[in-house]
Amino acid sequence: MDGIWAVVPEVDWGHLDYLVVDMPPGTGDVQLSVSQNIPISGAVIVSTPQDIALMDAHKGAEMFRKVHVPVLGLVQNMSVFQCPKCKHKTHIFGADGARRLARTLDLDVLGDIPLHLNIRETSDTGQPIVFSQPESDEAKAYLRIAAEVVKRLPPPLK
């Protein structure tokens, strides 16, 4: 945690077991600066299953490997849309793109997040689905992924 103090000294983080930093896709200055200035235990690559997004995800994974940040796995976001009325499932952004990329990079897929209206609505109200609807399938998808990430990280410092 000392590295974080050096980057953002005016923030009192308190005691943290984990600090998750959500970065924009790609391999730009933000990603390089963070990976070079903060000790990072691991990176999770999140991508939709479409080819253009997977190209950025591939570059991101390779960049983290080059700067010696372990890539913990991939998350396939907006993996499937299920019609709330008829329950038909549609792969709007394609199917299994993250799985194909994971095989190419010799990584695991940590899980899938569906494209679901409840995720967007609860996020927009400031009450993420894991808090507002913890028993929903959508919340359980996030919780499964979080558990997979924690399994792959070194234990937190006490």
Overview of the structural elements:
The chain has a single domain, classed as Rossmann fold, CATH 3.40.50.300. Helices cover 43% and strands 16% of the residues. It contains seven helices and four strands. Strands 1, 2, 3 and 4 form a four-stranded mixed beta sheet that branches. Strand 2 and strand 3 (89-90) form a beta hairpin. It is globular, with a radius of gyration of 17 Å. 22% of the residues are buried.
Feature tags:
single chain, 158 residues, alpha/beta, 4-stranded mixed beta sheet, 4 strands, globular, ATP binding, P-loop_NTPase, NUBPL-like, 4 iron, 4 sulfur cluster binding
Largest sheet entry: 4 strands, mixed
- CATH T-level fold name: Rossmann fold
CATH C-level: Alpha Beta
Question: What's the CATH architecture?
Answer: 3-Layer(aba) Sandwich
> How helical, in percent, are the residues?
40-55%
Q: Please identify the structural class as seen in this structure.
A: alpha/beta
Q: CATH H level: which superfamily?
A: P-loop containing nucleotide triphosphate hydrolases
Write the layout of secondary structure elements.
Layout: H1 2-7, H2 29-37, E1 43-47, H3 51-66, E2 71-82, E3 89-90, H4 97-105, E4 109-115, H5 117-124, H6 129-132, H7 137-152
In short:
This protein is of the alpha/beta class. The protein has a single domain, classed as P-loop containing nucleotide triphosphate hydrolases (Rossmann fold), CATH 3.40.50.300.
